[in-house]
Amino acid sequence: MPGNNDGKAHAAASPATSKVHKKKKKKKKKPAVDTKHDPESSDDHTLPGNNAATTHGSNSAAAIRQVVVKQYSSNGLQAKSAATGTSAASQSPHPAKVSPSNDAQANESPPSELPVAQTEGFSTGLYRVLLETKRAELLCESILLTYRNVARLKKIFDQEDNFRSGEITQDEFFMLINEEKRKLTSGIFEYVGLPQNPKRLKFDDFVVCAVTFAALSRRELLHYAFTLFDHDASGAMDEHELREFCGDLKNKGFFFEKNVQIAQKKMVDGDVKKHGTRAIGDGLVDYEDIANGTTQFPAAFYPILQFQRNIRAATLGEPFWIRVEERQQYIEVLVHYMRLHEGHLPPLSIQEHIKALFQREVYALRKRAVVKYTQEKRQWEMEREAKRACESLLKLEGEH
């Protein structure tokens, strides 16, 4: 029947149309984006566990900031450096957001992962074009000098550089720091690793001299003066060396010449000496005698302290360098704590947490302490390995 045929046709067409609709639905699904490979997908891309994201983050945080760790010996300043680590906390421009646990993770890193950087070569541009050498850059960075601080030093240097040659003479240097040239003052050049009698100083040389000497602690300052006149490096001044030392203290405009003579006599006679291994009244004066003498006769040793004060006043000011010295002392306290607690930093107090919200200095000082402790730990390991190698060599020689 025609009606039945129409019904069959309609029935046959209905599954066909349904297939067409299914095909259309399938076609709509084909252009769907695979979130596993699409970089614009926000589902997996922002997750910390995403491989592409973590790889990119680790690459962007791979720049290691180098700092100087200063070690003072009888030969002068030995500039060394170590890396501070590659954690995201160390690279963040807002340290206040960093949790204290990041500091603990930093000092748990093995020393082998923190390479020592050389101080030779050109600067990395941390202070833009102000500094040329890496040594001067690392030195300024080690005591947290800012670009503004270095720019101020450059302005002071340029005021003395009348011919804009980029260099100043020795006489201009001593005129800048308001000091006369004598052994006590000219010894600064050899102390920081420059030639003993340089004819001219570049800005980087001026920075190394001024920053190094202005940042010395009182003990380091006295040690500088002592080693300068201990010519034979015996650890004690004889009569001739002590006479030269005391004679150099009597600079122009010094009105306490009699105090120097009294201090010299007292130190030689042994009244200033403490109980030690040497016999009292042996005519020799060691570093401890000089340190005790500065306490009992401050006027006699005033020129040593005044030399540093003049450098501080001529550069960034006495209050600024006092704050630098306080920061260095705080770093020493942190390092001492780390020695006693297997490299762990002390927890932040409530006051320090609040201070860290407004000042970046809190975490910067803790990072400096981590660097210094890591450097010490590396030195201990090197000495231990050298001792073992020496013992093995002696053992082999004994067997043969």
Compact description:
With 400 residues, the chain is mainly alpha-helical. It is 57% helix and 6% strand. The chain has helices spanning 2-29, 51-60, 88-91, 101-107, 134-142, 147-160, 170-176, 183-191, 203-214, 218-229, 239-249, 257-269, 287-296, 302-314, 318-340, 350-358, 361-399, and strands at residues 66-73, 76-83, 167-169, 200-202, 236-237, 285-286.
Reconstruct the topology from this structure:
Layout: H1 2-29, H2 51-60, E1 66-73, E2 76-83, H3 88-91, H4 101-107, H5 134-142, H6 147-160, E3 167-169, H7 170-176, H8 183-191, E4 200-202, H9 203-214, H10 218-229, E5 236-237, H11 239-249, H12 257-269, E6 285-286, H13 287-296, H14 302-314, H15 318-340, H16 350-358, H17 361-399
Antiparallel strand pairs: 1-2, 3-4, 5-6
Helix pairs in contact: 5-9, 11-12, 15-17
Region (Disordered): 1-59, 80-117
Organism: Globisporangium ultimum (strain ATCC 200006 / CBS 805.95 / DAOM BR144)
Protein name: EF-hand domain-containing protein
Please state how the strands of the largest beta sheet are arranged side by side.
1-2
Shape descriptor reads globular
Radius of gyration: 34 Å
Q: Which stretches are poorly predicted, pLDDT < 50 over at least 5 residues? A: 1-117, 275-279
Taking the alpha carbons of the first and last residues, their distance comes to 120 Å
Mean pLDDT: 73
Count of runs of 4 or more consecutive helical residues: 17
Protein name: EF-hand domain-containing protein
GO molecular function: calcium ion binding
Region (Disordered): 1-59, 80-117
Biased composition (Basic residues): 19-30
